[in-house]
Specification:
Strand order of the largest sheet: 3-4-5
Bound molecules: glycine
Helix content: 55-70%
Structural class: mainly alpha
Largest sheet: 3 strands, antiparallel
Distance between the termini: 30 Å
Radius of gyration: 19 Å
């Protein structure tokens, strides 16, 4: 691993990055108004996800990023803009059929964040509806929370580890262990069927929904079955780390560390930025910076929970990843939308390769704020 800069130089560098984030997000707030952004095209957020798909899984990240910034500096514009985008979820809850396992991403970043930071009771009720919906997706024969809707009755995916903190929140809020029980059952099944012996992860497992027997492990958003989609690996690192944070169950921390070691071994070969899949053919070269940003946050979480002598690997790797993103993949032009460039939605998906994506920005901002000790634990 290359030399780390000393702590004072690092803090100065992070402060500079934070100031650039603040300038850029203030300009974006003015341009975005009450729209919900996802991917900017030609440097502008032209599509409003509120209109395009009110139930889309990424619709919370914009608010989550703004709540992080509001927590860091108290700028009212961040809070007001975040609150506006929360309202879309009333309609989504009423419609019901568009929502699925991703309510964690959606409601932790909007309603739960609002409730935690402002005490808004309406937000608490919204989030409890969402947690109940998530718990209702539990398959008690296969012991997993089912992914997506329609015919995917037996599907579970690694991404959902990032949604179960909504259940841990509801468990504490209601003093009701059912929610934590479901979260733990899902995480245990993920340990059994998604985590592989070598520290990599499957994206998807398909079960027979009536018997709970695992049947298939398709490619999902990665290159192929058996490959390793980097964002999926990052969901596992951060998701298992959060499951440990919420429960203290050591097997989750060990899993998070194992996937982190696998991730670090892979990105060391590409200057600390992740390819979209660690087991895809060498050409075409395709990055996914969103995976880098999310994995960095997961590693910072691990660093906070391990003994002092273990911290450096996770902390220093996360720093290298965030600084590599800043050095090579950030757009600081305040006239253009989107900070972190070169995110990729899925391997080979035309039009959604090497673009800025709202969750890439979210995790980058969370990581930088965390290193500055200005972050807010949204999960
Ligand atoms: N959770 C969907 C994705 O990571 O693209």
């Amino acid at each position: 691993m290359a030399e780390m800069m000393d702590e004072k130089t690092l803090q100065n560098k992070l402060q500079e990055i934070y100031e650039k984030i603040d300038c850029k997000l203030q300009a974006e707030c003015v341009r975005v108004g009450d729209k919900i952004p996802y991917i900017p095209y030609n440097g502008k957020y032209t599509v409003d996800m509120r209109e395009e798909n009110m139930s889309f899984w990424t619709n919370g990240f914009w608010a989550g990023m703004l709540w992080q910034m509001y927590h860091a500096n108290g700028n009212q514009m961040y809070m007001e803009t975040a609150k506006k985008s929360e309202l879309v979820f009333d309609e989504a809850l009423e419609k019901f059929t568009g929502l699925h396992h991703d309510v964690g991403f959606q409601f932790l970043h909007t309603a739960v964040a609002d409730y935690r930071l402002t005490g808004n009771e309406k937000s608490k009720a919204r989030a409890l509806h969402a947690a109940t919906l998530l718990a209702g997706r539990f398959n008690p024969i296969g012991n997993f929370i089912r992914a997506w809707n329609l015919d995917k009755t037996g599907w579970m995916i690694v991404d959902c580890l990032m949604n179960i903190p909504l259940l841990y929140w509801a468990e504490k809020e209601l003093q009701d262990p059912r929610f934590g029980y479901i979260a733990n059952q899902h995480a245990h099944t993920a340990l059994k069927v998604l985590l592989r012996e070598d520290g990599s992860c499957n994206h998807i497992a398909i079960f027979d929904p009536a018997t709970g027997e695992p049947l298939e492990f398709p490619a999902g958003q990665g290159y192929a079955s058996g490959s390793s989609w980097s964002r999926g690996q990052s969901w596992a690192i951060y998701g298992f780390a959060l499951a440990y944070m919420h429960t203290g169950m050591k097997e989750y921390l060990n899993a998070a560390k194992q996937v982190a070691h696998y991730f670090i071994a892979n990105i060391a070969a590409t200057d600390y930025v992740s390819l979209v899949d660690f087991r895809a053919p060498k050409e075409p070269v395709c990055w996914d910076t969103t995976a880098t940003a999310c994995a960095a946050c997961g590693m910072l979480q691990i660093a906070e929970m391990v003994p002092e002598y273990e911290k450096a690997l996770y902390h220093d790797s996360a720093v290298k990843m965030l600084l590599a993103l800043e050095e090579k993949h950030c757009n600081w032009n305040v006239e253009e939308d989107g900070i972190v460039q070169d995110g990729t939605v899925a391997y080979g998906r035309e039009g959604e390769i090497h673009v800025p994506i709202i969750y890439g920005d979210y995790f980058f901002v969370e990581g930088v704020l965390r290193l500055l000790k200005k972050d807010f634990m949204i999960w």
